Amino acid sequence: MEESSSCFDESIKTNSISIPSYLGRLLLRTHHEDDTANCASIFSNPFSRKHLRFLQPPNGWKNVEEQWTIEDFTDRVNVQKATRANGKSCVLNIILLSSISGEEKDRCIGTTGYVTIDNDIGYLGIITEQNTTRKGYATEALYTSIVFAFERLGVKKIKFQTDELNEEMRGWCENTAGLKLDNKKQMEINGYSFIEYEYIFTFDQWNNSIKKKLEDKMNNIFL
Asked: Using H for helix, E for strand and C for coil, what is the string for 12-77?
């Protein structure tokens, strides 16, 4: 990939997407109805929400326990479909393939992608199921999301935003990807205050160093 795309691919705005990952263990795809229950469970898990307490359903909480329901997640998917149709987001589900995992069927283990695409900047994030950590799935999903954004979404820069206390995400950015802290600032969202750390990189930085770092990390998984 010698250069990034200049605009958001029109075919992505309304069509289904399915992207094989670098190691072939995952698919990144647009939402299927049978992913909804898994996604609602992941978003409700205290592990997933530890540093995302501000993240709420589009229409607010429907229960005092502040647990995501199937209806809540369906609302979120519909909002994201609308913004993708306008070229302003592209969020994909992470599907663990049964041919690799040995499970009975393919299973949604999280979401990744770009909740916001603002001009040529894609804001990349990820949420995964607790029992799939430490297996390299996050790196594989993020790598695939980055390649896809530069090739198809008209993105020139990619930005990660995370809570100062989210040591795992900060560690991935700084140690696995080799990113440097670009900015930090006090934030308050939905009544939750935290210090936000920002990491940003360009297409050239990706090609010159970050891409190889992630590939080396993934290639070592099977050694």
From this structure: HCCCCCEEECCCCCEEEECCCHHHHHHHHHHHHCHHHHCCCCCCCCCCCCCCCCCCCCHHHHHHHH
Q: Are 164 and 195 in contact (CB under 8 A)?
A: yes
DSSP 122-184: EEEEEEE-GGGTTSSHHHHHHHHHHHHHHHHB--SEEEEEEETT-HHHHHIIIIIS---EEEE
Per-residue pLDDT of 150-198, as tens digits, reads: 999 999 999 999 999 999 999 999 999 999 999 999 999 999 999 999 9
pTM above 0.90, yes or no: yes
